[in-house]
Amino acid sequence: MAKIIHISGLKKRFGANIVLDGIDLDFEAKKVTAIIGQSGTGKSVLLKTVNGILQADEGSIALDGKPMEAMEEKELLEARRRFGYLFQNAALFDSMTVEQNIAFPLREMLGIKDRKKIRERVREMLSWVDLEGIEKKFPAELSGGMRKRVGFARTLAPEPDILLFDEPTTGLDPVLSESINELISRVNRELGMTCIVISHDIAGMFAYADTIAFLADGKIAAKGKPGELARSNHPVLRKFLEYSFTNFDAYEDNQCRDS
Ligand SMILES: Nc1ncnc2c1ncn2[C@@H]1O[C@H](COP(=O)(O)OP(=O)(O)OP(=O)(O)O)[C@@H](O)[C@H]1O
To answer: Which PANTHER family match (predicted)?
Structure first.
């Protein structure tokens, strides 16, 4: 299987806080990889380091076999253009309409000036996320789920080939969460985009991801297909999965109290 990103020995600290302590991890092209782990273990820091928002202290991130830290400025800029990043809070510009938000990367990143072309692309993107006809609305007029979808459309608009999702379903109800996971799966299948997702929706990731990586103590403690991780004997991972999937013991205790 082709590796699109190869991470080796990646370290990142903030002062005395060692967050990433030697990450070795590959991402396969055109697959969905989920990164899971307890809060504060460094999942977002890892994603931001891959995307170049944060600078690693040590280690290497290679894109299609070429270490990004060795790239010339122009080459690095082109490499960065291949990434799309959907932030946790969708990060829309409040003073801009939906259309202006989605058009922003088309104008600023791709330099597209043709208004008709931009309008068509915005319409196409809104149709992708099932939000046709909301071009003139402002983010404040949208529900949280709609804002996430508009953020998704904006990330998709410049056609990146690697999509990074930071908690795409946080704050959404289970039905909306499922629809966002389904969207990720669709862009992966139909547009052939490589998707890297950090999520606390563990059941969703076990349902949709091809590969799952478990981050603990600054390292990738386990990695494999969902079934392989589910069968893993890694004690920290086991505990994490037991708590992540419905806690039936607590449910049964609660039922006993009610009856
Ligand atoms: N810019 C920063 N400056 C200083 N410390 C930071 C910075 N960004 C993250 N950290 C620290 O890095 C650690 C990991 O944070 P990170 O947000 O990556 O965790 P996470 O696994 O994504 O958590 P969650 O699941 O709660 O989103 C935390 O201790 C956090 O305080």
So the answer is: PROTEIN TRIGALACTOSYLDIACYLGLYCEROL 3, CHLOROPLASTIC
